[in-house]
Design goal:
The structure holds 2 protein chains of 2 kinds.
Chain A (H helix, E strand, L loop, with lengths): L3 E3 L4 E6 L3 E7 L3 E7 L4 E7 L18 H14 L8 E6 L15 H15 L4 E6 L5 E6 L4 E5 L6 E2 L1
Parallel strand pairs in A: 1-3, 6-7
Antiparallel strand pairs in A: 2-5, 3-8, 4-5, 4-6, 8-9, 9-10
Helix pairs in contact in A: 1-2
Chain B lengths: L4 H32 L3 E3 L3 E6 H4 L9 E11 L3 E8 H11 L7 H31 L3 E3 L3 E6 H13 L4 E11 L3 E9 L1 H10 L4 H10 L2
Antiparallel strand pairs in B: 1-7, 2-7, 3-4, 3-5, 3-6, 4-8, 7-8
Classes of the chains: A alpha+beta, B alpha+beta.
Chain lengths: ~160, ~220
Protein backbone atom coordinates (compact mmCIF):
# COMPACT_ATOMS: atom_id res chain seq x y z
CA UNK A 1 0.00 0.00 0.00
CA UNK A 2 1.34 3.38 -0.86
CA UNK A 3 1.23 6.18 1.63
CA UNK A 4 0.66 9.91 1.32
CA UNK A 5 3.06 11.81 3.52
CA UNK A 6 1.96 15.15 4.93
CA UNK A 7 4.15 18.22 4.70
CA UNK A 8 3.42 21.08 7.13
CA UNK A 9 3.86 24.81 6.74
CA UNK A 10 7.55 25.75 6.35
CA UNK A 11 8.43 22.09 6.15
CA UNK A 12 9.95 19.69 3.64
CA UNK A 13 9.78 15.91 3.15
CA UNK A 14 11.05 13.28 0.76
CA UNK A 15 9.57 9.93 -0.22
CA UNK A 16 10.15 6.86 -2.38
CA UNK A 17 7.66 5.70 -4.98
CA UNK A 18 4.91 4.62 -4.84
CA UNK A 19 4.37 6.94 -1.87
CA UNK A 20 3.07 10.43 -2.44
CA UNK A 21 3.33 13.79 -0.71
CA UNK A 22 0.69 16.33 0.22
CA UNK A 23 0.39 19.75 1.77
CA UNK A 24 -2.91 21.35 2.75
CA UNK A 25 -4.01 24.93 2.34
CA UNK A 26 -1.22 26.67 0.48
CA UNK A 27 -1.93 30.39 0.55
CA UNK A 28 0.84 32.77 -0.35
CA UNK A 29 3.22 29.90 0.32
CA UNK A 30 4.53 27.89 -2.60
CA UNK A 31 4.63 24.11 -2.80
CA UNK A 32 7.65 22.96 -4.78
CA UNK A 33 7.80 19.31 -5.82
CA UNK A 34 10.77 17.55 -7.36
CA UNK A 35 11.24 13.98 -8.59
CA UNK A 36 13.84 11.69 -10.09
CA UNK A 37 12.02 8.85 -11.83
CA UNK A 38 15.13 6.70 -12.28
CA UNK A 39 15.88 6.64 -8.57
CA UNK A 40 12.17 6.63 -7.70
CA UNK A 41 12.54 9.52 -5.27
CA UNK A 42 10.25 12.49 -4.77
CA UNK A 43 10.28 15.54 -2.54
CA UNK A 44 8.08 18.44 -1.53
CA UNK A 45 8.83 21.75 0.18
CA UNK A 46 6.23 24.17 1.58
CA UNK A 47 8.02 27.50 1.21
CA UNK A 48 6.80 30.56 3.12
CA UNK A 49 9.22 33.33 2.28
CA UNK A 50 11.45 34.09 -0.70
CA UNK A 51 14.82 34.94 0.72
CA UNK A 52 16.69 33.80 3.85
CA UNK A 53 19.37 36.45 3.47
CA UNK A 54 16.89 39.30 3.97
CA UNK A 55 15.92 38.09 7.41
CA UNK A 56 17.41 39.05 10.71
CA UNK A 57 17.36 36.66 13.63
CA UNK A 58 19.01 33.38 14.43
CA UNK A 59 18.06 29.69 14.52
CA UNK A 60 16.35 29.94 11.19
CA UNK A 61 14.23 27.13 9.90
CA UNK A 62 15.74 26.46 6.49
CA UNK A 63 12.53 24.93 5.15
CA UNK A 64 10.85 28.32 5.50
CA UNK A 65 12.75 30.08 2.71
CA UNK A 66 12.73 29.36 -1.00
CA UNK A 67 16.50 29.57 -1.42
CA UNK A 68 17.50 27.35 1.50
CA UNK A 69 14.55 24.94 1.32
CA UNK A 70 15.13 23.92 -2.29
CA UNK A 71 18.83 23.33 -1.72
CA UNK A 72 18.06 21.21 1.34
CA UNK A 73 15.34 19.27 -0.47
CA UNK A 74 17.71 18.45 -3.33
CA UNK A 75 20.38 17.41 -0.82
CA UNK A 76 18.01 15.06 0.98
CA UNK A 77 16.85 13.58 -2.32
CA UNK A 78 20.45 13.01 -3.41
CA UNK A 79 20.99 11.23 -0.12
CA UNK A 80 18.22 8.82 -1.18
CA UNK A 81 19.96 8.17 -4.48
CA UNK A 82 18.49 10.83 -6.74
CA UNK A 83 20.72 12.64 -9.23
CA UNK A 84 20.33 16.31 -9.86
CA UNK A 85 20.62 16.09 -13.64
CA UNK A 86 17.62 13.76 -13.74
CA UNK A 87 15.41 15.90 -11.51
CA UNK A 88 12.34 17.76 -12.68
CA UNK A 89 10.10 20.12 -10.71
CA UNK A 90 6.58 21.46 -10.56
CA UNK A 91 5.08 24.09 -8.33
CA UNK A 92 1.78 25.51 -7.10
CA UNK A 93 0.57 28.18 -4.70
CA UNK A 94 1.87 31.71 -4.32
CA UNK A 95 -1.56 33.30 -4.15
CA UNK A 96 -2.37 36.76 -2.81
CA UNK A 97 -4.96 35.89 -0.20
CA UNK A 98 -5.83 39.41 0.82
CA UNK A 99 -5.63 42.59 -1.19
CA UNK A 100 -3.50 44.69 1.13
CA UNK A 101 -2.99 48.31 0.45
CA UNK A 102 -0.14 48.89 2.85
CA UNK A 103 2.64 46.69 4.27
CA UNK A 104 5.04 46.98 1.38
CA UNK A 105 7.29 44.08 2.39
CA UNK A 106 4.41 41.66 2.26
CA UNK A 107 2.75 42.87 -0.88
CA UNK A 108 2.88 40.24 -3.55
CA UNK A 109 4.67 37.85 -1.23
CA UNK A 110 3.13 34.95 -3.13
CA UNK A 111 4.45 36.21 -6.42
CA UNK A 112 7.87 36.79 -4.93
CA UNK A 113 7.89 33.30 -3.45
CA UNK A 114 7.19 31.80 -6.86
CA UNK A 115 9.88 33.93 -8.51
CA UNK A 116 12.42 32.93 -5.89
CA UNK A 117 11.62 29.25 -6.42
CA UNK A 118 12.05 29.64 -10.17
CA UNK A 119 15.37 31.38 -9.70
CA UNK A 120 16.72 28.74 -7.34
CA UNK A 121 15.58 25.81 -9.51
CA UNK A 122 17.15 27.46 -12.54
CA UNK A 123 20.39 27.96 -10.67
CA UNK A 124 20.43 24.27 -9.77
CA UNK A 125 19.61 23.29 -13.34
CA UNK A 126 16.28 21.65 -12.47
CA UNK A 127 13.60 22.25 -15.13
CA UNK A 128 10.09 23.35 -14.08
CA UNK A 129 7.66 21.16 -16.03
CA UNK A 130 4.44 22.84 -14.95
CA UNK A 131 3.09 25.35 -12.46
CA UNK A 132 -0.15 26.79 -11.14
CA UNK A 133 0.72 29.90 -9.19
CA UNK A 134 -0.73 33.32 -8.36
CA UNK A 135 -4.43 34.27 -8.26
CA UNK A 136 -6.24 34.77 -4.97
CA UNK A 137 -7.25 31.41 -3.57
CA UNK A 138 -5.75 28.68 -1.42
CA UNK A 139 -4.68 25.32 -2.81
CA UNK A 140 -4.24 21.82 -1.46
CA UNK A 141 -1.78 19.74 -3.45
CA UNK A 142 -1.03 16.04 -3.72
CA UNK A 143 2.05 14.85 -5.58
CA UNK A 144 2.66 11.40 -7.01
CA UNK A 145 6.34 11.18 -7.94
CA UNK A 146 5.74 7.89 -9.72
CA UNK A 147 3.59 9.49 -12.43
CA UNK A 148 4.72 13.06 -11.83
CA UNK A 149 1.10 14.19 -11.52
CA UNK A 150 0.43 17.12 -9.20
CA UNK A 151 -3.20 17.21 -8.12
CA UNK A 152 -4.54 20.63 -7.10
CA UNK A 153 -7.74 21.22 -5.13
CA UNK A 154 -9.22 24.63 -4.40
CA UNK A 155 -12.47 25.74 -2.75
CA UNK A 156 -15.33 25.93 -5.22
CA UNK A 157 -13.25 24.71 -8.14
CA UNK A 158 -12.82 21.41 -9.89
CA UNK A 159 -9.71 19.40 -9.19
CA UNK A 160 -6.97 20.08 -11.66
CA UNK A 161 -3.92 18.06 -12.59
CA UNK A 162 -0.65 19.43 -13.87
CA UNK B 1 20.34 26.92 24.06
CA UNK B 2 19.02 30.01 25.76
CA UNK B 3 15.32 30.39 25.84
CA UNK B 4 13.89 32.77 23.26
CA UNK B 5 12.14 35.96 24.22
CA UNK B 6 8.78 34.60 23.34
CA UNK B 7 9.24 31.50 25.47
CA UNK B 8 10.09 33.60 28.52
CA UNK B 9 7.28 36.05 27.88
CA UNK B 10 4.78 33.26 27.52
CA UNK B 11 5.85 31.47 30.66
CA UNK B 12 5.91 34.50 32.83
CA UNK B 13 2.85 36.36 31.67
CA UNK B 14 0.58 33.53 30.58
CA UNK B 15 -2.21 34.56 32.94
CA UNK B 16 -2.05 38.24 32.10
CA UNK B 17 -2.28 37.51 28.40
CA UNK B 18 -5.14 35.09 28.99
CA UNK B 19 -7.02 37.74 30.87
CA UNK B 20 -6.49 40.17 28.02
CA UNK B 21 -7.97 37.61 25.65
CA UNK B 22 -10.86 37.09 28.02
CA UNK B 23 -11.77 40.73 28.26
CA UNK B 24 -11.22 41.47 24.58
CA UNK B 25 -13.11 38.49 23.27
CA UNK B 26 -15.82 38.95 25.87
CA UNK B 27 -16.47 42.41 24.56
CA UNK B 28 -16.38 41.22 20.98
CA UNK B 29 -18.80 38.40 21.69
CA UNK B 30 -21.23 40.79 23.31
CA UNK B 31 -21.19 42.81 20.12
CA UNK B 32 -21.71 39.73 17.96
CA UNK B 33 -24.46 38.39 20.20
CA UNK B 34 -26.23 41.73 20.08
CA UNK B 35 -25.93 41.90 16.33
CA UNK B 36 -27.18 38.40 15.68
CA UNK B 37 -29.58 38.19 18.61
CA UNK B 38 -28.08 34.88 19.70
CA UNK B 39 -26.61 33.54 22.88
CA UNK B 40 -22.94 32.97 22.37
CA UNK B 41 -20.64 31.01 24.63
CA UNK B 42 -16.96 31.57 24.79
CA UNK B 43 -14.26 29.17 25.85
CA UNK B 44 -11.37 30.10 28.11
CA UNK B 45 -8.75 31.85 25.98
CA UNK B 46 -5.56 30.03 25.25
CA UNK B 47 -2.16 31.62 25.10
CA UNK B 48 -0.09 29.56 22.76
CA UNK B 49 3.44 29.58 21.54
CA UNK B 50 3.51 27.59 18.34
CA UNK B 51 6.02 26.35 15.85
CA UNK B 52 5.26 27.68 12.43
CA UNK B 53 4.97 24.13 11.09
CA UNK B 54 1.96 23.46 13.31
CA UNK B 55 0.34 26.81 12.77
CA UNK B 56 -1.81 25.68 9.86
CA UNK B 57 -3.60 23.18 12.06
CA UNK B 58 -4.27 25.72 14.81
CA UNK B 59 -8.03 25.40 14.57
CA UNK B 60 -8.22 21.84 13.27
CA UNK B 61 -7.68 20.55 9.75
CA UNK B 62 -5.98 22.92 7.33
CA UNK B 63 -8.54 22.19 4.66
CA UNK B 64 -11.64 23.25 6.60
CA UNK B 65 -13.40 26.07 4.83
CA UNK B 66 -13.84 29.23 6.85
CA UNK B 67 -14.36 32.94 6.51
CA UNK B 68 -11.25 34.79 7.53
CA UNK B 69 -11.44 38.44 8.50
CA UNK B 70 -7.99 39.86 8.77
CA UNK B 71 -6.95 43.19 10.24
CA UNK B 72 -3.69 44.86 11.04
CA UNK B 73 -3.15 46.54 14.38
CA UNK B 74 -1.77 50.03 14.04
CA UNK B 75 -0.76 52.81 16.38
CA UNK B 76 0.88 52.15 19.75
CA UNK B 77 0.91 48.41 19.18
CA UNK B 78 1.35 46.56 15.93
CA UNK B 79 0.58 43.07 14.84
CA UNK B 80 -2.40 41.37 13.39
CA UNK B 81 -5.77 40.05 14.32
CA UNK B 82 -7.69 37.29 12.66
CA UNK B 83 -11.35 36.53 13.18
CA UNK B 84 -12.19 33.09 11.80
CA UNK B 85 -15.78 32.01 11.32
CA UNK B 86 -16.85 28.58 10.12
CA UNK B 87 -18.39 28.68 6.65
CA UNK B 88 -21.84 27.67 7.87
CA UNK B 89 -21.73 30.11 10.77
CA UNK B 90 -20.71 32.89 8.41
CA UNK B 91 -23.45 32.02 5.96
CA UNK B 92 -25.98 32.00 8.76
CA UNK B 93 -24.86 35.35 10.13
CA UNK B 94 -24.91 36.90 6.67
CA UNK B 95 -28.34 35.49 5.97
CA UNK B 96 -29.66 36.81 9.21
CA UNK B 97 -28.24 40.27 8.76
CA UNK B 98 -29.54 40.44 5.20
CA UNK B 99 -32.83 38.95 6.32
CA UNK B 100 -35.01 41.95 5.64
CA UNK B 101 -33.81 42.35 2.09
CA UNK B 102 -35.27 40.43 -0.79
CA UNK B 103 -32.21 39.40 -2.71
CA UNK B 104 -31.56 36.76 -5.28
CA UNK B 105 -29.19 33.93 -4.53
CA UNK B 106 -26.48 35.62 -6.54
CA UNK B 107 -26.92 39.00 -4.91
CA UNK B 108 -26.71 37.41 -1.47
CA UNK B 109 -23.45 35.75 -2.48
CA UNK B 110 -22.09 39.13 -3.55
CA UNK B 111 -23.25 40.87 -0.42
CA UNK B 112 -21.77 38.26 1.86
CA UNK B 113 -18.26 39.57 1.73
CA UNK B 114 -19.24 43.09 2.59
CA UNK B 115 -21.46 41.85 5.40
CA UNK B 116 -18.55 39.86 6.82
CA UNK B 117 -16.33 42.89 6.47
CA UNK B 118 -18.73 44.96 8.53
CA UNK B 119 -19.15 42.19 11.09
CA UNK B 120 -15.36 42.06 11.35
CA UNK B 121 -15.17 45.78 11.78
CA UNK B 122 -17.68 45.88 14.61
CA UNK B 123 -16.60 42.73 16.40
CA UNK B 124 -12.86 43.26 16.15
CA UNK B 125 -13.35 46.90 17.01
CA UNK B 126 -15.07 45.84 20.22
CA UNK B 127 -12.18 43.52 21.05
CA UNK B 128 -9.66 46.24 20.47
CA UNK B 129 -11.61 48.89 22.34
CA UNK B 130 -11.47 46.73 25.42
CA UNK B 131 -7.77 46.21 24.92
CA UNK B 132 -7.13 49.90 24.35
CA UNK B 133 -8.99 51.13 27.39
CA UNK B 134 -7.40 48.49 29.56
CA UNK B 135 -3.87 49.31 28.51
CA UNK B 136 -4.34 53.00 27.82
CA UNK B 137 -2.65 52.45 24.50
CA UNK B 138 -4.02 53.91 21.34
CA UNK B 139 -4.46 50.97 19.00
CA UNK B 140 -6.39 51.24 15.77
CA UNK B 141 -7.40 48.77 13.10
CA UNK B 142 -6.80 48.70 9.39
CA UNK B 143 -9.88 48.14 7.23
CA UNK B 144 -10.76 44.45 7.38
CA UNK B 145 -9.97 42.09 4.53
CA UNK B 146 -12.33 39.19 4.04
CA UNK B 147 -11.71 35.89 2.34
CA UNK B 148 -13.42 32.53 2.29
CA UNK B 149 -10.99 29.70 1.78
CA UNK B 150 -9.15 26.80 3.36
CA UNK B 151 -8.11 27.75 6.85
CA UNK B 152 -4.48 26.77 6.21
CA UNK B 153 -4.28 29.27 3.39
CA UNK B 154 -5.84 32.00 5.52
CA UNK B 155 -3.48 31.33 8.41
CA UNK B 156 -0.48 31.49 6.11
CA UNK B 157 -0.93 35.25 5.88
CA UNK B 158 -0.21 36.08 9.53
CA UNK B 159 2.32 33.26 9.59
CA UNK B 160 4.30 34.92 6.83
CA UNK B 161 4.12 38.25 8.56
CA UNK B 162 5.27 36.94 11.91
CA UNK B 163 7.60 34.40 10.35
CA UNK B 164 9.84 37.16 9.06
CA UNK B 165 11.52 37.40 12.43
CA UNK B 166 10.79 34.20 14.21
CA UNK B 167 10.10 30.49 13.84
CA UNK B 168 7.59 30.65 16.63
CA UNK B 169 4.33 32.50 17.00
CA UNK B 170 2.80 33.75 20.22
CA UNK B 171 -0.91 34.22 20.06
CA UNK B 172 -4.02 34.62 22.14
CA UNK B 173 -6.78 32.41 20.84
CA UNK B 174 -10.40 32.40 21.92
CA UNK B 175 -13.00 30.02 20.62
CA UNK B 176 -16.68 30.82 20.65
CA UNK B 177 -19.81 28.83 20.07
CA UNK B 178 -23.34 29.94 19.46
CA UNK B 179 -26.53 28.19 20.47
CA UNK B 180 -26.91 26.44 17.18
CA UNK B 181 -23.52 24.94 16.63
CA UNK B 182 -21.81 28.01 15.36
CA UNK B 183 -18.11 28.18 15.62
CA UNK B 184 -15.36 30.68 15.31
CA UNK B 185 -12.05 31.90 16.64
CA UNK B 186 -10.27 35.09 17.52
CA UNK B 187 -6.56 35.08 17.08
CA UNK B 188 -4.58 38.09 18.19
CA UNK B 189 -0.90 38.32 17.40
CA UNK B 190 0.88 41.45 18.55
CA UNK B 191 4.52 41.53 17.52
CA UNK B 192 7.29 41.12 20.07
CA UNK B 193 7.80 44.79 20.78
CA UNK B 194 4.08 45.28 21.25
CA UNK B 195 3.87 42.49 23.80
CA UNK B 196 6.38 44.38 25.90
CA UNK B 197 4.42 47.62 25.47
CA UNK B 198 1.12 46.01 26.35
CA UNK B 199 2.48 44.20 29.38
CA UNK B 200 4.31 47.21 30.74
CA UNK B 201 1.26 49.42 30.38
CA UNK B 202 -0.63 46.89 32.48
CA UNK B 203 1.87 47.50 35.26
CA UNK B 204 4.25 44.63 34.75
CA UNK B 205 7.66 45.82 35.95
CA UNK B 206 9.57 47.29 33.04
CA UNK B 207 13.02 46.15 34.21
CA UNK B 208 11.79 42.57 34.30
CA UNK B 209 10.45 42.87 30.79
CA UNK B 210 13.61 44.48 29.54
CA UNK B 211 15.80 41.80 31.06
CA UNK B 212 13.79 39.14 29.27
CA UNK B 213 14.07 40.84 25.94
CA UNK B 214 17.76 41.61 26.37
CA UNK B 215 18.89 38.24 27.68
CA UNK B 216 17.20 36.41 24.93
CA UNK B 217 18.81 38.34 22.11
Amino acid sequence: MSEIIKVGMADLKTCRVPDGLTTLGLGSCVGVVIRDTVAGVGGMAHVMLPDSTAIRGDNLNIAKFADTAIVELVRQMEFLGAKRNRMEAKMAGGASMFAFKTQSSLVKIGERNAEACHAKLKELGIPVRAEDTGKDYGRTIIYYPETGVLEICAVGKNKSYI
Amino acid sequence: MAKGKLESLTEKYQDVLKELGNIGAGNAMTALAYMTNQRIDMKIPQVRLMDIQDFGSLVGGEDQIMFGIYLNLEGDASGSMLFLIGKETGDAIAKQLLGGMSLSEEETENMKNSVMQEVGNIVCGAYLNALSSLTNLCISLSPPQVVMDMVGAILSVPAVEMGLNSDKLLLIQTQFKEDVEMEGYFIVMPDEASYVKILSSLGMPMDELMSITENAQ
